[in-house]
Structure formats: structure tokens, C-alpha cells
Design brief:
Number of strands of chain A: 0
Distance between the termini of chain B: 46 Å
Largest sheet of chain A: none
CATH class of the largest domain in chain B: Mainly Beta
Order of helices and strands of chain B: HHEEEEEEEEEEHHH
Number of domains of chain B: 2
Helix content of chain B: 25-40%
Oligomer: heterodimer
Strand order of the largest sheet of chain B: 3-2-1-5-8
Largest sheet of chain B: 5 strands, mixed
Order of helices and strands of chain A: HHHHHHHHHHHHHHHHH
CATH superfamily of the largest domain in chain B: Cupredoxins -  blue copper proteins
CATH class of chain A: Mainly Alpha
Number of helices of chain B: 5
Radius of gyration of chain B: 26 Å
Strand content of chain B: 15-25%
CATH architecture of chain A: Up-down Bundle
Helix content of chain A: 55-70%
Distance between the termini of chain A: 27 Å
Structural class of chain B: alpha+beta
């Protein structure tokens, strides 16, 4: 009752005595676990919208200029047929929503918030009030973004990359306020994410439980730590960039408009300087999640813990100097292109190390095929494909041909859906018992995973093929091009698969809500895992642990250790000779 | 094995791009198979069965060094192989007397020939819309410009792509090796008419090209074709 948010963690003795009102508990909460849930719900809601937009795009590509079912009521003038400008808006907003309002809120927002204090052994974030603000600022950014659908001229339609001057001059797209709103929303989101990242970094550096040395931290915490550093350093570049773009559009500046002496490539440099670290912001937490889940269900330590941590650090450093590979044919100096090839090839090495270490973790394991494990394995295998297809782009001459084709679309979806989204699903299934205190339904979990895995591949793998055939991304109608007509059947197959992929998410929604209210009560440690969050009650109360914080005695992946009679040895179990003195 | 999906290549440097593409395809293909077979084998061999005990190991330094060094070496080789082709395509400009100027706009390619005097910006310039005619086996230099937004000059059969950036003149080249008619789409989102922004490049035999040029690019034809008197001003205004 008395605990003010900012000093809540200091008032250990009050744990359990809080009688916060409804608003302070569920809406303007400073509890990291509630904020995590809020981010999760926001991300999942936006995922529905982003997914529907993708299906609209797919419909148009398979059956160009036919009425999209269900859109007749919205696009009254055309009877549900997409016009090119509406189509451009649909793919622009699909990517914008998925990247900024689905994957970032779920992976960095929800699981960053949920895992960091619980897994380093802290009672809350370093700055709980700032944490709350971070969510509500991001929430406002989401509302602002949604409002763009209702303005005259439609929402932004210059692609999620919003290349200037197309995005900088309203008459080029016919979009006026939509693009402004896009800029304002991302600016707001940038502010929210900065608050979150400062919090994550401070908490991890300062608030680890006794004994939690840096190299005893779970790898998911390492990944979130590095992600937060990237967020802190990358997002402000985007934030400044969208502010400049907005000024170009509304105040008459000419940062990116050549007519006034501006430079269109400046936007691309700013955007990709943010954009490439952003890719790692999306994938690093998923890598951490996979590294967390694999050992638990392999009942075996992670293979090469230090290599895993250092390869993530290497990726973080290198991610700043590879961004130019998005610009090989942009008009940037070709000599610079050569330098970026070298760095891009180098960044593939830490990714390869991680993959082999995951395989090494499977070697000699005792693999339990639970639903979170299946999703984590899907992450590893799909990330392999996404990583390998990236090598084509790293080779500058090959990139000349495949740049801006569906090969790129296939690649990003293998990384961002195959990687990040499977990582998010794995995390949801894995931590759901701790987050909501109830188990998810295993049968429904399988019913969700298998069709998702199959239809994901049927949707995105053929995109490599049509990309190699030359189909450009962001075109409205492939049938307008003679050289693409012979492969139109692939577009139809892809769209059927995408529709099936959409339908495959229904078991997930049912499972999520059914388990939330009627799932089996979760025990303290349902997976027999070692990390600290499993020593807190399910769900953990405000301030997470009772009177004393756990003390850490060892690394997070001591599974099947000879020191223990059981096949797991929690980080907080004291190492007294006999394995009896466990204190849960 | 893959040829059924890459469009036919008809340019000199396209061969090098295709060779690299196939090389990377085979390297990644083999890696993919090795990784997936290993992974599936592990998933089957090490599945949880009664009595199975997981191996307690934290890693293997030798193994980790091997799988760091081997991919690194492969990538170094790929880089070294990519550099010559890249520098040939984008960083060198073969000598040629055949120059065209392409000015992209929403949503057309404007192709300007210098006319008999060989200079741009003079009265005998000739501008075509969405079509370019070039002779086979001849280096063609393209001066690429844009008058509004960013477009991208993409000729799938030539393996050629280059963004046209407003405010810049970007020099590119290609040399077609087979006569024919090749599609020439814009590959960078350039507005609501992006899809369908497309031209054709006609590659002629030298004789045919001579005939076409005589009919279309001579001073006489330029004059006959020109809009009354102010074609020069129009040419300037386009800049």
C-alpha cells in the first residue's frame, strides 16, 4: 500500500501486502510482469491485423484485381477490389505493424519485461515508473498508427522503408496525412523503446541477485541485454530520421528532396543504419529464447555457452557496419559496396557458430518434444534457411540480380517469421505457466504448431523460386509482366498456403484464451528448469519472491549434472554435498 | 538444374553473376542438407526414451574452432570471388561510343539518343518512351537519371539492376549477346503506378540496328518527329 512505485523493490517486507486498486494493478501498473502481459496482448492483437493485411496482399497477387472476400464493406467504391494505392498501403502497413508493433512488443517488450527481473533475480525493473511509461508511450504509438487508416488519402504507402523522395513529397504517392501519421507514430514508438532499453540495461547491470555473475546469466538475458543496447543506439537514428522526413513533408525542409538541395540517399543511410541493427533486435531475443529452451528439453547443458554469448556480442558490434548491403544498387559508391560485402560475410560467421552450437546441444541429448521445444526447433531450422539465403545477397554481383525481388521477401520472412515468430511462439508456450499460472493445452499446441510449420514453408519457400524467376517485390500485379506470367501458378499456391497459415493460428487463439481461464494450474517448475524464474510462484506475486531473494551458485544449464541425483540442478540450489538442501 | 527458373541470360557479365549464383546455391544447398540430416538424425537418435540419459558436456573447443574457421574460410573465398565481378560490373566503364540517357519518371522510362552529333542537349536528340534499341555485342553506356522519385533500372535477362536517383547521374553499362526483345521493369517502389512501369529493350543485329537508326535517329527523322520548334527547350526542361 505504502510502496511507491519507484522504490517498490526496496520494501521487501511489504511483499504480499499490496492492495493496489484495479487501475494500478491492471492498467497503470508498474509491475514488470503486468507490463509484460500488456505488451503481449498488444502484440498479439496487432498480429491479427498485420496478418490480415498480408492475406489481402496475397489475395491480390494470386488473383489480381478480383474482389477480396470481406473487403466489400470497407472498399465500397471498388466493391472489394484493391486499387494499386490501396495495395501499396496494405503491404506498407503489414510490414510496419509486424515489425514495430508485433515482434518488438512481444519479444523485446513482453519477454524482455517478464524475463529480465525474474531471471536475474530482481524484484522489478530498475525504474518501474519509466517501465510503465514505456508501455503506454508504445501503446499511444500503436493507436496513432491505427488512426492512419481513417484519414483521407489513406495510410502510408511508400513501403515500410519509406524511401525518400517518394515518402517526402505528398504528391508522389497521393498520401498526405497517412505518411505524417506514420512518422509521428514511429517517433513516439522510438521514445517508448528508448525508455524500455535504458531500463533493461540498468536492471541487468545493477540488479542481479547475489552470485549472478555476467557469465552465469541465462542466454536469453544476454540476448535481451544486447538487444537493449542495440535499441538504445539504433532507434534514435530512426527517430531522428522520421522527424526529418516529417519536417520535409510539413515544414518545407529539404533533407531528402533533391529539388531543395537534399539527398535521397541520406534517408537510406539513416534508415538502414537503424534498419540493420533492427533486424538483430528482432532476431537476437529469439536466439536467446531458443538457447534457453533447447537445454531444458534436451536435459543437457547448452553447447558452448561462452561462444553463444560472445557470438551475440560479435553480431551486435558487426550489425553497425553491415547496413550498406541493403544499398548495393542504390547509387552508393560501389567501392563502399565492396567494403560492406566483407563485413556482411563476416557477420555470417557468428550466426554459423550459433547454429552449430544448437546442433551440438542436441547431440547426445534426451530430447523431449514438448510444444515449446517444437517451436524452438522450428526456429533453429528456419533460421538456418534464412541465414543461408542471406549469403546470396552478401555476394554483391548476385545481389544485383536478386535485390528487390521475392528472393529478398522469402529471406526476410524466413528470418522474421521463421525466426522471430517461431521464437515468440516458443517463448509463449514455455513461459505461459509462469506468466499466467496455468498450463497451455498440449493437443491444441500441436494442432497449432504442425500446420503452422508446414504452411509457413509452403508459403515462403516458393517465394525463393519466383524471386529467382525475377518477380519484383511490391508489384501490384505480376500478370502485367510477360516474363513473370509463366510462374503465376506459384503465386496461387503461395496464397492458398498463406490462407491456410492464417487459419492455422486459430488453435493458438483458442488455446491462449482457454488456458488463460481454464488451463490446468501450473506447478512451480513445470519443465524442471534451472533458471531463477521457476523458483518464484506461478504466477509470481508483486516483487516476485518472498522475504529473501534467491542466491545463485552456478550457471543456468546444469542439466544431467553428476552433482545432482535428478537431471536438473537449479541455479539457486546450494552446492552442499547432498542434493537434499533444495529450497523452493 | 536451376536453369528453369533463372530467366535466360543474354549479357556478358550475366554469366559471371549466374556462375556465382550457382556456386552459392551449391554451397548453401550442401550445407542445408548436412545441417538438416544431422539435425533429423539427432532428433531421432536422441529422443527421450526410458532409460536414456543425456550426455553432460559443456562443449568441445576443437569442434567449435573447426566450425568457426571452416565457414569463415568459405565466406572469405566467396568474397574474393565476388570482388572481381562486382568491380567489373559497377566500378569499371568499358570504352564505347554508344551512349544513351535514361531519365526515369513516374511511371515511364524516357530514353534519349544523342542523335548524329553525338551530344546530349542538342536539337537532334531523340527521346523514346519505354523502349530502347541497341545493337548486339556492343557495349552500351547508360546515363541514368530520375526526375521525381527513386526508380530502379532492372533488366532480368541482362542481370542488370541500378537505382535511378533524382539529383544524380549514374553511369552504367551492359553488353547484350543475343538479339531479341527484353522486358525492362522498374524494380523500386515508385508510387501507385509502380507496377506496370515497364519498357522493352530491343537488341538488334548490327544490320537491323543500322536500319532502325537510319529510320528513327537521323537528323531528318528527328526534325520530322520533333514537336514544333521548341524540342530543345523541352529537352532542357526535362532536366
Amino acid at each position: 500500500m505504502s510502496a511507491s512505485s519507484a522504490t517498490a523493490h526496496a520494501h521487501v517486507e511489504h511483499a504480499g501486502h499490496h492492495e493496489l486498486g484495479f487501475v494500478r494493478t491492471y492498467i497503470f501498473s508498474t509491475d514488470h510482469k503486468m507490463i509484460a502481459r500488456q505488451f503481449l496482448f498488444m502484440g498479439l492483437f496487432m498480429m491479427i491485423l498485420g496478418g490480415l493485411l498480408a492475406l489481402v496482399v496475397r489475395w491480390q497477387l494470386a488473383w489480381p484485381e478480383t474482389a477480396v472476400p470481406g473487403l466489400g464493406g470497407i472498399l465500397k467504391e471498388t466493391g472489394g477490389i484493391l486499387e494499386p494505392s490501396t495495395y501499396n498501403m496494405a503491404f506498407t502497413m503489414h510490414a510496419t505493424i509486424m515489425i514495430f508493433f508485433v515482434i518488438m512488443p512481444i519479444l523485446a517488450g513482453a519477454f524482455g519485461n517478464f524475463c529480465i527481473p525474474l531471471m536475474v533475480g530482481a524484484r522489478d525493473m530498475a525504474f518501474p515508473l519509466l517501465n510503465m511509461l514505456s508501455f503506454w508511450v508504445t501503446f499511444c504509438a500503436g493507436l496513432i498508427m491505427l488512426s492512419g487508416f481513417f484519414v483521407e488519402g489513406g495510410h502510408a504507402a511508400a513501403g515500410w522503408t519509406s524511401y525518400a523522395p517518394l515518402s517526402a513529397v505528398p504528391s508522389y504517392t497521393g498520401v498526405n496525412w497517412g505518411q505524417n501519421i506514420w512518422c509521428i507514430s514511429l517517433f513516439t514508438m522510438g521514445v517508448g523503446s528508448m525508455m524500455g532499453s535504458i531500463n533493461y540495461i540498468t536492471t541487468i547491470i545493477n540488479m542481479r541477485a547475489p552470485g549472478m555473475r555476467l557469465f552465469r546469466m541465462p542466454l536469453v538475458i544476454w540476448s535481451l541485454f544486447i538487444t537493449a543496447i542495440l535499441l538504445l543506439l539504433a532507434l534514435p537514428v530512426l527517430t531522428s530520421g522520421v522527424a526529418m522526413l516529417l519536417f520535409d513533408r510539413t515544414l518545407g525542409t529539404s533533407w531528402f528532396k533533391p529539388a531543395g538541395g537534399g539527398e535521397p540517399l541520406l534517408w537510406q543511410h539513416l534508415f538502414w543504419y537503424f534498419g540493420h541493427p533492427e533486424v538483430y533486435i528482432l532476431i537476437l531475443p529469439a536466439m536467446g529464447i531458443a538457447s534457453e529452451i533447447l537445454p531444458v528439453f534436451c536435459r543437457k547443458p547448452i553447447f558452448g555457452y561462452h561462444a553463444m554469448a560472445f557470438s551475440m556480442i560479435a553480431i551486435a558490434f558487426l550489425s553497425w557496419i553491415v547496413y550498406g548491403h541493403h544499398m548495393f544498387v542504390s547509387g552508393m559508391s560501389p567501392a563502399l559496396g565492396m567494403a560492406f560485402t566483407v563485413t556482411t560475410m563476416i557477420i555470417a560467421v557468428p550466426s554459423a557458430i550459433k547454429t552449430f552450437n544448437w546442433l551440438g546441444t542436441l547431440w547426445g541429448a534426451r530430447i523431449q518434444f514438448t510444444v515449446p521445444m517444437l517451436n524452438a526447433l522450428a526456429f533453429v531450422s528456419m533460421f538456418v534457411i534464412g541465414g543461408l539465403s542471406g549469403i546470396f545477397m552478401a555476394s554483391t554481383p548476385v545481389d544485383i540480380y536478386i535485390q528487390d525481388t521475392y528472393f529478398i521477401v522469402a529471406h526476410i520472412h524466413y528470418v522474421v517469421f521463421g525466426g522471430s515468430i517461431f521464437g515468440a511462439f516458443a517463448a509463449i508456450y514455455y513461459w505461459f505457466p509462469k506468466m499466467f499460472g496455468r498450463m497451455t493445452n498440449t493437443a491444441l499446441g500441436h494442432l497449432h504448431f504442425w500446420p503452422t510449420f508446414v504452411f509457413f514453408n509452403l508459403t515462403f519457400f516458393p517465394m525463393h523460386i519466383i524471386g529467382v524467376g525475377g518477380q519484383m517485390r511490391r508489384i501490384y500485379n505480376p500478370m502485367q509482366y510477360e516474363f513473370l506470367q509463366h510462374q503465376q501458378h506459384w503465386n496461387v499456391i503461395i496464397t492458398y498456403s498463406a490462407l491456410a497459415l492464417g487459419i492455422s493460428q486459430i488453435p493458438f487463439v483458442i488455446n491462449f484464451f482457454w488456458s488463460l481461464f481454464a488451463g490446468k494450474k501450473a506447478p512451480l517448475n513445470p519443465w524442471n528448469a534451472n533458471t531463477l524464474e521457476w523458483t518464484a510462484p506461478s504466477p509470481p506475486p508483486h516483487l516476485n519472491w518472498g522475504a529473501t531473494l534467491p542466491t545463485v551458485y552456478r550457471g543456468p544449464y546444469e542439466y544431467s549434472s553428476p552433482e545432482s541425483r535428478e537431471d536438473f540442478l537449479p541455479q539457486s540450489t546450494p552446492p552442499v554435498g547432498a542434493a537434499g538442501a533444495r529450497r523452493h | 538444374m536451376l536453369d528453369w527458373w533463372l530467366p535466360e541470360n543474354v549479357s556478358t557479365y550475366g554469366r559471371e553473376i549466374d556462375w556465382l549464383f550457382h556456386l552459392i546455391y551449391y554451397i548453401t544447398g550442401v550445407t542445408f542438407i548436412l545441417v538438416f540430416v544431422t539435425m533429423l538424425a539427432f532428433l531421432v537418435m536422441y529422443r527421450d526414451r526410458p532409460g536414456r540419459k543425456a550426455r553432460y558436456t559443456h562443449g568441445n573447443t576443437t569442434l567449435e574452432i573447426v566450425w568457426t574457421v571452416v565457414p569463415a574460410l568459405i565466406l572469405v573465398i566467396l568474397t574474393l570471388l565476388s570482388v572481381p565481378a562486382w568491380s567489373k560490373i559497377k566500378m569499371t566503364m568499358p570504352d564505347t561510343d554508344f551512349v544513351v540517357q535514361v531519365t526515369a519518371k513516374q511511371f515511364n522510362w524516357q530514353v534519349t539518343y544523342p542523335g548524329p552529333d553525338g551530344k546530349f542537349g542538342t536539337e537532334d536528340d531523340k527521346t523514346l518512351l519505354d523502349e530502347m534499341h541497341v545493337p548486339v555485342n556492343k557495349v552500351v553506356r547508360v546515363i541514368l537519371k530520375s526526375q521525381d522519385v527513386i526508380h530502379s533500372f532492372f533488366v532480368p535477362n541482362f542481370r542488370m539492376k541500378q537505382d535511378a536517383v533524382p539529383g544524380r547521374e549514374i553511369r552504367q553499362w551492359f553488353e547484350a549477346t543475343k538479339p531479341g526483345k527484353y522486358e525492362w521493369p522498374c524494380a523500386e517502389l515508385c508510387g501507385f503506378g509502380h507496377s506496370g512501369m515497364r519498357g522493352w529493350i530491343y537488341v538488334h543485329t548490327p544490320d537491323e540496328y543500322g536500319k532502325w537508326a537510319a529510320e528513327n535517329l537521323t537528323a531528318a527523322s528527328a526534325a520530322a518527329d520533333a514537336k514544333p520548334e521548341d524540342s530543345k527547350k523541352e529537352g532542357k526542361a526535362k532536366k
